[in-house]
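Researcher: We're reviewing a set of sequences before deciding which ones to prioritize for further study. For each one, I'd like a predicted 3D structure that I can look through quickly. This is DUF7795 domain-containing protein. If possible, include the structure in C-alpha cell form so it fits the rest of the review sheet.
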Amino acid sequence: MESLLGSSKEARRIFSDFMTRNPLDKRSKLVGDVIKANETQRMTAYLKDGCLTVPDGEDAELVLLKKHEAFDYVAMMGIIYNMLKQDYTMEEKIVSSLKLSSQLEQLDSYCKMWSLRPYINDDIMHQAWRFV
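Model: Here's the predicted structure for DUF7795 domain-containing protein, in C-alpha cell form for your review sheet.
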C-alpha cells in the first residue's frame, strides 16, 4: 500500500493516528473514573480531538470496525490522488513535447499513452466506486 501512496507523510500520519488511538468504552466504570480523575488539558484534548469514545448502547468492536472503514476510505483517497497526479504529470509532459514538426509515429505513441492511462489502476478505481 505504501508504494501506491508514494511518499505521502500525511497518509502515514493518518494511518498512525488510526492505529494508535483505541476507542474508550465510557460504559466502563473504571474508564469513567480514570477520565474524571485525570481531567487535564491534555486528556480533554485527547478525548476531543480524535480519541473515539463508545457511546452508550454501542459495541466497542463496532466502533473499531467503523474506524477501520474510515481508514480504508482515507487510504483509497490517497492512492487515487497519487494515481491521478502521475497521470496528470504524464499528460503534461505529452502536451509540452507536442510540436508542429512532430512525426506521425511520435504522435501515435502519445495518443496511445494518453488513452491507455498507464498510471490508473482500474481495479482500484472499481473498488473506490464501492465507497460512493
